[in-house]
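User:
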Amino acid sequence: MSKMKEFVAFRALVALLAEDGKMHLMDEVYQRCLEQEKLPIEQVENQVKFLYEQYSDDQISVKISELVTPENITPEVEVIYQSIADLHKACPNNKGDWYFSGDYPTPGGMRVVNRAFINYMKNSDERAY
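Assistant: Predicted structure:
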């Protein structure tokens, strides 16, 4: 989770928030991430998950499709943003879904995602770790 702006799902999320007049949520989460920086590492929680909870997997998939489809292409492009439940069905013996669910197995992972979001909001290209 080095640079959030490089993730198409995050770019889709930001586009949806902008379209729906919910960009204030970005500022709210930014403030929460800043507050998390002051906490002991074992108390840090992923604040960015709140933003993703605003939309369904299908809504994010549709927006990703729009973002990656060139304007001059005729065929319809559809991107499937796999749900965590379907990921568990596809890989029943692997519980390493933290990168997709945001349920990082370590407090350090939580701190990194929050820091990556802070960097995004500050328009910084600095890595989060």
